[in-house]
Specification:
The chain has 205 residues and is α/β, with parallel strands linked by helices. The protein is built from 9 helices and 8 strands.
């Protein structure tokens, strides 16, 4: 049986960060992040493998999980713990059949998406954007806490609230039924260790 997922998912995307990408991940892990989603859609498979194996090594050193976004093949190559599928990505059952011991998550943007992902066998979902987000501007208006609450009531799998997350929004999302939160700039912008500590205080309170 899989262990419960950490409640803070840090999305690590080298296209949104500077040349200190790996240093930033190490800082986040050192501050307590235990789940990294490696998202590098702009890189070739070979580039993803080269960078992903370094991210995986850092995660292993801190006892953290690494989920690879979209690319099951890259995940296998770096010995990942799971795959996070885009909304229009590989069907869940294909990933599950190929990688039965992995955690499989899905990006969702509506209550119907969450219900479908659970029916398809996903282990967890992200639901976004809950609040307006500078790093995810192309997904339309914010869904809001009401949609998050409806999704939580309609499903039994963990929902990670994504989009515009900060400590205040994290608490509001938990109160609305989220299992945890997922974020990129909220971790990797500014003082990373301080960001993580504040978020973990909310999630573990």
């Amino acid at each position: 049986m899989r262990q419960p997922l950490p409640r803070l998912m840090a999305i690590a995307d080298p296209s949104a960060q500077d040349e200190n990408f790996l240093d930033h991940i190490e800082l986040a892990l050192g501050a307590g992040v235990r789940l990294i989603q490696f998202r590098a859609k702009h890189l070739s498979a070979n580039q993803q493998w080269n960078l992903g194996r370094e991210v995986a090594a850092l995660c292993a050193a801190f006892g953290a999980l690494i989920f690879v976004n979209d690319r099951c093949d890259v995940g296998i190559a770096v010995d990942a713990d799971g795959v996070h599928l885009p909304a229009q990505g590989l069907p869940v059952y294909v990933a599950r059949r190929t990688l039965p011991d992995w955690s499989v998550g899905v990006s969702c943007h509506s209550v119907a998406d969450v219900i479908q992902a659970e029916d398809d066998g996903a282990d967890y979902v992200t639901l976004s954007p809950i609040f307006e987000s500078s790093s995810k501007p192309g997904y339309g208006p914010a869904l809001g806490l009401g949609t998050l609450s409806d999704a939580a009531a309609a499903s039994t799998i963990p929902i990670f609230a994504l989009g515009g997350m900060n400590p205040t929004h994290a608490q509001q999302s938990l109160d609305a039924g989220a299992y945890g939160i997922a974020l990129m700039s909220g971790v990797f912008s500014g003082e990373i260790d301080k960001n993580v500590r504040k978020l973990l205080e909310v999630l573990h309170s």
